[in-house]
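Run log // design_07
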């Protein structure tokens, strides 16, 4: 998506005074305006120049604006891909027949001359909002296709890794007594486990299947989770569990465990010398959830916007996949919930999970 560049409008208008007026009005609003004096020239320009919106005069030398719009729609359709250039028809005539023709030719809106700057600015702004939703939708479709591809690749990779792991295990039996060979085999097995984890996370991230949700008392669930976690904590990290609220939510225990594993794993890594990790429940009127707080190194303000992006990591190549928080966010979203983060460099970080409350 070309969201950073200024939006480009194509104004098709044969009257040079009118054209200047349109350019001035729109350039003042921060748009980049390109111009054409005829429909034929405008259609030709569209082939080479990316345009976000077209202002189309009706009475033009040669092809008129209605025909040009119709022609453009036919071309977009023939190109097969999801293609759409919003068109606003501009004309001096304001009869019912004009309105009918504008809608029939495939135009998206209609403005009459003399143009009023505030009307033009408002219509263009509204159309641009629609256009950017359309661009986002196109992007989502592309991402979905990419997800399906990733799922296919991940499946094949799983089989490949199983072959490697199975053979490494057999070799390990034969390598008894040869420490150099054993070390190499262990390295192969470690790499295999890393690959498996990456693929598991990728599959979880791109999965579109809605999780099976069951009523869950988050406080009891968290108490059990914390018991397990206690056994695996490095001695430098002390765990505090606080359960002042008993929010009931609809959740998938397996996936929520994955969420907490990722958040606690990150928290533990963020604690460099000694520190504490706090797990706490909370409940409001309609929402409830869990806060995960650590007294670790914190997250730089610039990174806060990107930590949920897939493959964003500040760790060394073999240390992190950068998929942990992306997976966490997608699981929470599939639960109808939200996740937010607050952090202070050098002080620590809190991740807040929020789910709609349910009755049990
Ligand atoms: N609790 C935390 N404290 C400090 N930094 C964190 C914390 N949680 C996440 N991060 C930052 O966010 C990045 C992305 O995390 P994540 O998606 O889990 O991927 P990974 O752990 O593989 O790097 C981490 O590399 C780290 O920089
Ligand atoms: Mg992580």
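design_07 sequence
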């Amino acid at each position: 998506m070309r969201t950073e560049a200024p939006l480009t409008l194509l104004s098709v208008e044969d009257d040079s005074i009118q054209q200047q007026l349109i350019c001035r009005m729109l350039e003042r609003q921060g748009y980049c305006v390109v111009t054409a004096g005829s429909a034929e020239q405008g259609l030709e320009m569209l082939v080479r120049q990316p345009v976000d919106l077209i202002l189309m005069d009706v009475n033009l030398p040669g092809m008129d604006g209605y025909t040009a719009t119709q022609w453009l729609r036919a071309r977009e359709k023939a190109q097969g891909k999801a293609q759409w250039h919003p068109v606003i028809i501009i004309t001096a005539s304001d009869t019912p027949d004009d309105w009918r023709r504008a809608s029939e030719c495939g135009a998206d809106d209609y403005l009459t001359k003399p143009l009023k700057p505030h009307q033009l600015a408002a219509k263009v702004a509204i159309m641009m909002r629609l256009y950017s939703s359309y661009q986002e939708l196109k992007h989502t479709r592309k991402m979905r296709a990419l997800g399906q591809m990733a799922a296919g690749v991940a499946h094949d990779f799983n089989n490949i890794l199983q072959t490697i792991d199975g053979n490494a295990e057999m070799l390990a039996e034969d390598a008894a007594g040869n420490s150099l060979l054993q070390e190499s085999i262990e390295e192969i097995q470690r790499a295999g486990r890393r690959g498996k984890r990456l693929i598991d996370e990728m599959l979880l991230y791109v999965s579109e299947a809605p999780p099976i949700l069951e009523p869950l008392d988050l406080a009891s669930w968290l108490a059990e989770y914390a018991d397990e976690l206690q056994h695996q904590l490095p001695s430098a990290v002390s765990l505090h569990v606080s359960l002042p609220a008993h929010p009931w939510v609809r959740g998938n225990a397996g996936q929520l465990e994955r969420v907490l594993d990722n958040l606690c794993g990150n928290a533990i890594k963020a604690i460099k010398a000694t520190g504490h990790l706090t797990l706490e429940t909370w409940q409001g009127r309609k929402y409830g959830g869990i806060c995960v707080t650590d007294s670790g190194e914190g997250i730089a303000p610039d990174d806060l916007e990107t930590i949920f992006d897939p493959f964003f990591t500040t760790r060394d190549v073999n240390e992190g996949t950068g998929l942990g928080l992306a997976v966490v966010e997608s699981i929470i979203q599939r639960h109808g919930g939200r996740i937010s983060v607050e952090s202070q460099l050098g002080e620590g970080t809190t991740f807040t999970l929020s789910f709609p409350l349910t009755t049990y």
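The chain has a mean pLDDT of 91.
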